[in-house]
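User: hey, got a sec? need DNA repair protein RadA folded
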Amino acid sequence: MPKGKKTVFFCQNCGYESPKWMGQCPGCRQWNTFVEETVSTGNKGNSVQGPGSGIKNKPVALTKIQAREDDRVKTDIEELDRVLGGGIVQGSMVLVGGDPGIGKSTLLLQVCRQLSEKGHKILYISGEESLRQIKLRAERIGEFNDQLLLMCETNLETIRHTIEEVKPEAVVIDSIQTMYNEQVSSAPGSVSQVRESTGILMQIAKGLGISVFIVGHVTKDGSVAGPRVLEHMVDTVLYFEGDRQVAYRILRSVKNRFGSTNEIGVFEMQEKGLVEVKNPSQAMLNGRPTDASGSVVVCSIEGTRPILIEIQALVTKTNFGLPRRTSVGIDYNRVNLLMAVLEKRAGLHLGDWDAYVNLAGGMRLGEPAIDLGIVMAIASSYKNKVVDEGLLIFGEVGLSGEIRGVSMAEQRVREAEKLGFTACLMPKANLDSIQGKYRIRLIGASNIKEAMGYI
Ligand code: TYD
Ligand code: MG
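Assistant: Yep! Here you go:
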């Protein structure tokens, strides 16, 4: 081993560093994710304005600093602008993560198109596809002008020189796992390479005021560093979610230094690239079965926007001793907990029944306000009785079967009315503030026994 180098082990999922190999990562609890990498010890030449970097930095009065909202550049892809908090902030770094093939490159190429259309100079650097492949993709998306420059490159030194020469206003790096820096000895895609590369790009972004988009593949096998190891470095982290089989794609912000998190944007993958879904509630409820037991509609607040979505439950007799429970799009443990509450507080004997709970449209929801919907769907399927299709349900369910109030109840009611629902089953605690303001019938319930009456 040359002097000044040492080997350490990194978790490829979360970047946890350890001097020895471990089977399970203490940081993220994933198995088999540690990979040996060589790192240089001693002088870290690339630290961002660390001590001794020679840059004289002085404190400035907060009031003297100029910053305006219109420093943001809108992409005119509304769903994306909202997720970004109102547009792209100059000099910011945005990480777009997601499974391979979900549409990251397509989305960013569309962003490039919008920005170049507005006269911004954009540089798209791909380490994955050839110029011809990008061209073919671009042809599906639409017409492009001369402001978009393409380059196939993986060496960061070359990329740095190109950026300094071309001086674009935004740069897209597709993907960070293919980039490498000669100073780091480990392979491209390893934790140290990915971090070092991001660090260099960060310096470029902040130094020249260029907005940088980085693509990061979410990897399952743990041999390549995932985007999570970069989350703390960048300004904004967006994840592209959804099934490849389902056309809907959800763009979710999990970190945003310039806007609210948990905001989502909904897209649909079509023949000509990603198309915005302006009214997601409508889209998610399309094709909903009528007169089917186990199907209810809930309302979840995603960021600042209410979204109506269908929950389906199927409860059937268990064939072999142990009942099966599965859930798609909803936390599995939450479903189990709510079934226990139903058993104990509403007297449903679910012990020898299988239960399958699904969220339609490839969405994932974690808000407690959908609890009551899950409970109602399971009970409806168990009793084989239909819940009125004009009924919207929301409310958090506690362990003693009580229905607790939720935030932003009024927005939920408004969205339900807008989409033609006739009634809302909601927590009694939320009723007072909304009663009488809307034409839609409001039904308050304080525990799940009361709620069962509406099946
Ligand atoms: P892509 O952007 O290459 O995914 P990623 O960069 O996240 O790996 O998206 C690839 C998928 O999208 C591919 O399966 C083809 C599909 N697609 C369409 O359906 N329509 C289109 O117009 C485009 C460009 C891609
Ligand atoms: Mg791609």
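Quick note: The pocket of thymidine-5'-diphosphate (ligand 1) is lined by residues 98, 100-106, 137, 140, 269, 271-273 (CB under 6 Å). Let me know if you need anything else on DNA repair protein RadA.
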